[in-house]
Amino acid sequence: MTQKLLDESVAYLRSKGFVDPEIGIVLGTGLGQLVDEIENPVEAHYNHIPYFPLATVEFHSGKLLFGTIEGTQVVVMQGRFHLYEGYDFLDVTYPIRVMHQLGIKKLFISNAAGAINLNFKKGDMMLIEDHINLQGGSPLAFKNVTEFGDRFVDMSEPYDIEMRKKLEEIAKQKGITLQKGVYASVVGPQLETKAEYRMLKILGADAVGMSTVPEVIVANHLRLPIVAVSVLTDECDPDNLEPINVQEIIEVAGKTEPKMVKLFKELIKQI
């Protein structure tokens, strides 16, 4: 990781019209509908952006978009990167550093996750209050990390309290169910065993997924306020576990997403 690489990525995007975005948004698996809300969109495919990784998951489209939502300039990642695609932590989080260099002041993250807390149901959304990193590494564990920020980063409150409160208020006003809880991030791509689901519950996780935590760690490194929402696409009950149906997960994400879009649009309007 060098500043020169970031500079080249940012210069390319600025040449395409990505100028002074205020909010960065990362869209998770099956969650692409927010891009329909972008006014006057400009897009850059990942394979054209210098030093960007490529999204290899079939339901991740792989482009960065710039435009306006609710009168605010945003840059949106449609398709993110995962460790399970063979990328390392620096690859996975590189776009966050690029969006920060472009000028974003806040970061919104979404993901699809499985519900460990059995009070939560398939199709619910969960506001992430805290997380457990079970991915076996850190995006800050590289030699020259101090060129980009402090080596030792405080994670006592990784998700912005003010934006969380606002999202809760918005959900209440709009009659949208928004659970709250702890997100556990694993490597994947295999789903969990019954014993692993039991372990996650003992550890205090309310939901489990394969993303988000590396991006959140880097955002905290950059002192970038974050809010993150999981769309709960399946119920992980170890006593009644059914074989995974990826198509159903994508369908549940698609059906729930309009509610997430409403929350994010209103939050953009209010901040």
TrEMBL record:
Record InterPro entries: Nucleoside_phosphorylase_d, Nucleoside_phosphorylase_sf, Pur_Nuc_Pase_Ino/Guo-sp, Purine_phosphorylase
The organism's place on the tree of life at top rank: Bacteria
GO cellular component term of the entry, any: cytoplasm
The keyword Glycosyltransferase belongs to this UniProt entry's keyword annotation: yes
Pathway: Purine metabolism; purine nucleoside salvage
UniProt similarity note: Belongs to the PNP/MTAP phosphorylase family.
Entry protein name: Purine nucleoside phosphorylase
